[in-house]
Amino acid sequence: MDSTPSSSPSSPFELVSSALGRYVPGGGSAAAAGPGDAGGDDAQGDETRGDDARGDRTTGRPVPDGPAADRQDQILGVVNLDRDLRITRSNLDAAVFAGLDAMAGSPFADLLPPGDVPTVTRRLRQVLEMGEAHVARIQRLRRGDGSELVVSMSILPAAAPQEGLTVSLIAMARRLHLYAAETAIGTSLDIGETAQSLAESLLAWGDVAAVDLDFAVWTGEGVTERAQGRIRLRRAALVPERAWPEGYVTPGGDLPSDASRLLAQAVRRNDAPQAIVIPDRRSVERLLGSPRVIRALVPGDRSASVACIPLVLDGEPPVVLGVAEVWRRADRPFHDSDLFDLQELVARTAHHVDLARQHQREHTQVLALQRRLLPRTGGRTIDIASVYQPATPDSAGVGGDWVNSFPLPDGRTALVVGDVVGHGLGAAATMGQLSMEARALLSAGLAPDEVLEHLDETVTLLDDAESGLAAGYSALGSTCCIALYDPVSHRVTLSSAGHLPPVLVLPDGEAGPLALRPHPGLGTEFALREPFDVHTFGAPPGSLLALYTDGLVEDPALSIDEGIRRLANVVATVHPWDALQQAARHVVSTLAPARQRDDVTLLLARMIGYRKGDTATWRLPARDDAPARARAHVSALLRQWHTRADTRDDVPLLVSELVTNAVRFAAGPITVRLIRAGHGLLCEVGDTGNGRPRLRAGGLLDDGGRGLHIVHRLTTRWGVRWTDTGKVVWAEVPG
C-alpha cells in the first residue's frame, strides 16, 4: 500500500512509521494475534489443535493467549493524506488493522462510519488550516466487511503545508474505551437506549453484538431468583444495523423458550453466573441443537464463535438480568484479554441496566395510573373523548397531568382536569389522591367550589414537614378545574383553582376561552387564599367544551394567550358529525409541540342533554296539598310515557313521600322534576331547607323516618345535592 517516499525524511509519517518496529511483533503481521487477527493457516491450525491443548471452551474456561496476543493492544498505524483528504500512503500492516481498505487515492472518509464523517472531516480541515495537532480522539474505523475497530486517532500537520496531514492510529484504547463506554451507557434511564449503548460498546470486540434481557427487566418488573427453565429473554439491542437472516431474532422479539433456557444454562455454572466462550461454529451448533434455535441466535454463516457474558445484579444470590452476546468470524478467535475486557465492561454497566429497569417500572406504574384516570365513555347526555400524551420517555417520569369524567348519581356529569406539580411517583401519588377525593366529594353532592376548598386543604396537609417536604416533593401550586354539566337545564357550573380557562365552542361556531377570574393554585399561603369563584354558563346541545393542561398550549415562540386562541380556533373546526375521539387526536397532533417539555392532556366534551319530551318540572307551594298535587302530575306523565304498571304505582308514592318530607321540614316553594333516562326514571324534589335527610334504624311503632324507609325500598339509590338556595333530594327508579 506504500507509495513513493516523502521528500521530507523527517515528516510525521516517517517518524511514526519508524516507531512501528518497536511495537509490531517479530515475524510480521501474520504472527500477531488478537481481535483483529487476520487468522492465517497457522492460526486455524492452532484453533483446531486447541481441543486437546486447551480443553473444551464451552465449559467457560478461558483460553491462554500467546505472547503476541498480549502485545496486540499497543500496535501503531499511520496514514498520510493530501489536502483533499485522500490517502497518499499508509502503513497499516499490523494484524489488528486487517480489513481496513486504506488504498492510495481513496478518501479517508471511506474508513469512517457515516455518522462520524462530518465531525472528523471538520477536524481534519481545522488541522490543515490552523497547523495545530488534534491528539487522542477516540474513533471507530469501518472495515470492509462492515465491522468496526476502535482506535485512538491523532491528526498531525505535515512538515510542509503542501504535504497535507498525517493521521496516527493506536489500536490500544481498550481501557479508555471501557471508561468511555461506561460513561455513555449511564447517560439514559430508558431501558432500550441503555441496552443499545451497551451493544454498541461491545461491538468493539466483535462483528455482531446483541443484548437479551429477562422479560421482567424489560418491562420494569421486580427481578427475583427463579427456576432456570422459566426464564424468558427478549432481544433489547442488536448492532450493527443490517439485513438479518430469516428467523433471526431482532430487537423487540422474544427468544424461543428453548434458546432462552440454553443461554441461561450456559451462563450459570455451579449455580454461579459466569462468562463463556463457544470457540467455533461446530460447537455452537452442537450446543444449540435444533435448526430453529440456530436460526434464531446465530447472526449469519460467517459467525463462528460467540462470547456470552451475563448481566449480573450483585446480591445473595446474584440475579442474572440478561445475557450479552458478542459474535466473531472464524479468523478472529477470542483470547483471555478479550474475555476479561468484556466481563469488566458488562460488570461495570450492569447496574445501569438495573437503574433503567427501576425507572421503567416507575414510568409504567405512573402511566398505568394516568390511563386508569382517563374517562372511559360518556353517556346518552354527553359525548366524551380524551387524549393523554406523556412527555418524552427520557424525562424524569410521567407527569402529574390528569383528566377525569364520570356521571354523578343525580344525572349530571362531572368533568375534571388537574395538573400536579412535578413528575414521577410523588406527583402520581398526589394526582391519584386528588382525583379520587374530587370524585368522592362530587358524588356526595358538593359543589365545585366546595370540592376545591377540600382539595386545597389536602394539598396543604400533604406538604407539611412530616409527609411532603421530608419526602423531597412538594405539590404546592397544583391546579384543578371542575365543571358539572346539567343535561336538563343545559348549563355548566365551573370552578377553577389556578388552571387555564376551558374553551367553549357554541353550536353557532362562536369559540373562545371562558372569562374566569384568576385564582391561585392549590395549597397557597393563607394570606393569599381567596374563595373559589363559581361560574355558570349555558351549553346548549351541540356545544363543545375543551379542558386541557398547559403542555398543549405552551410554546416558547408564543404567549400563553396566543396558544389558547390557537386551541380555540382548532377546536372550532370540529364538525358536529366528527367522531370525537378522532377529533381530539387531531387537535393534539396539530397543537402539541414537536419537542414536548411537559405532558399534554385534552378532554373534549360534546353536550347532548335530554330531549324536551324526556323531562318535566313542576313548582308547588309548600302546603299540605302539595303531595297530592305532585302525585297527580306524576301519574298523568307516566301514563303519557307508557311506563310499566309497577312503575306507575311506585313513582307517585315515592314523589309523595319526598314532597311530604319537604313540606314538613323545609320552607319556600318546592320543585319536582322527573327525568326519563336510559336506565330508568330519575325523580328530584328541591326545597329551600338545609337539613340533610338521614335514614335511621327505628322501632316498629316509630313514625319518624318512615318515609325515608319507603324511599329506600322503592329506589336503586338516592341522595342529596346542595344548591345555592337549599338542597335537592334525588332518587333513581328502574324503568
Task: Give the secondary structure arrangement, pairings included.
Blueprint: H1 12-23, H2 41-53, H3 67-71, E1 75-81, E2 87-91, H4 117-130, E3 134-142, E4 148-157, E5 165-171, H5 174-185, H6 191-202, E6 208-214, H7 215-219, E7 233-239, H8 257-266, E8 268-269, E9 272-273, E10 276-278, H9 281-288, H10 291-297, E11 303-313, E12 319-329, H11 336-373, E13 382-389, E14 399-407, E15 413-423, H12 424-443, H13 448-462, E16 479-486, E17 491-497, E18 503-505, E19 511-513, E20 535-538, E21 544-548, H14 560-572, H15 580-591, E22 600-607, E23 615-620, H16 626-641, H17 645-665, E24 670-677, E25 680-687, H18 706-714, E26 717-722, E27 727-734
Antiparallel strand pairs: 1-2, 1-5, 3-4, 4-5, 6-7, 6-12, 8-9, 10-11, 11-12, 13-22, 14-15, 15-16, 16-17, 17-20, 18-19, 18-21, 21-22, 23-24, 24-25, 25-27, 26-27
